[in-house]
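Example 429, ligand shikimate-3-phosphate.
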Amino acid sequence: MSDIQLQPTDKKIIGELNVPGDKSISHRSVIFASLAEGTSKITNFLTGEDCLRTVQAFRDMGVEIEQDDGSLTIHGKGIAALQEPVVPINFGNSGTTARLMSGVLAGLSFFTTAFGDESLSKRPMDRVAVPLRKMGARISGRNKGGLLPLAFDGTSLQGYDHKLTVKSAQVKSALLLAGMLADGKTTVTEIGETRNHTEMLLPEFGVDVEVDGRTICITGNQQPTAADVKVPGDISSAAFFIVAAALLPGSDLVIKNVGLNNTRNGIVQTMQQMGADIRADVHTHIGKEPVGDVYIKGGSLKGIELGGQLIPNVIDEIPIIALAATQAEGTTIIKDAEELRFKETDRISAVADTLNTLGADVETTEDGLIIHGKGKLSGGVIHSYGDHRIGMMGAVASLVSEQAVTIQNKDCINISYPNFFEHLNQSLK
Ligand code: S3P
């Protein structure tokens, strides 16, 4: 297992940074292009392990996908040309692959099986399997078909009027994809706004999707057509550098060409509330996705209350927001974030344990965290729990620690940010 020891530093975060491509948009680009008819080119694709699982899933079904670093050329032959995979599909650690692909596999005409690593095998799949069964899907697996490995029987699906009970873009997207493959009309009504990349990107592939407030409607039996996608930088990856810069007075960082979709940019608002000197300027759109630069300077932070509708917007950023809160003046309360218990780890426990090991004062609640800001951490030895975002939080924690921070099993960071340590070293000046 790979360890890294990060020594305390007096350096600041200075300069310009281009973070890797957005993970959510990378997954969706591969899925839509692989189902499409024609050749699609995806650029600035995130070559992290999770997105490569989605690529492999379609290669297993006979789609020709060429990869040249962050450029993919996908030779789609349409939904009907997909072939039954002879091996079980390996979703690895990727929840997004597992949920979105469940929607696809449920609606294809052949039999497939799929499995994941130990962490993914503990994560709930009933949130997609149960509503998919209402459309006629035949899905079986461990725990009455609620845990991986899963088997998909390949049946024809009927449209359905879904009312979601979890705030999850993965569930919404799985049901929309199944709806695209089904007969008739499918609607998905959310209980709160979640990232909307599926609704924004599917029309680029010629698929009609209607959005009316929190209800999204898709007509079945639509065949996507090829489209080129340039993936914007991932705001969730940028968040680690945003907080790193905010925590070190004298820092001055610009993160270029990052996705600023308003279902994803809550980290900017959150850091502003904490008193950070941060600004995000949209300068272009890629397709319908707003893209821009984030400017951040180091300074002092104050504790805040974070909850309600903003939570799905910052759900992946909560570990790094919690670290920021350890350095803020006063207490930060994070609530309504029970979904964190179903991530790569139970992130409520993992964040609190990790930060407390490093000398912070963090309490857990059922649906969040209470963080008593107290300034510099002491440092120590932590484990990533195999969770990329816990590993990166630990690395940023080393910048505000008196002693070294050792991160055990740092390699999981490759899941979403393969060149994270290179970027951290380059930015420290
Ligand atoms: C994602 C949705 C979120 C997020 C995950 C990516 C997506 O998960 O945490 O990293 O691409 O749709 P949930 O939908 O489970 O909240």
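Summary: Residues 3-21+232-427 form a domain with the UDP-n-acetylglucosamine1-carboxyvinyl-transferase; Chain fold (CATH 3.65.10.10).
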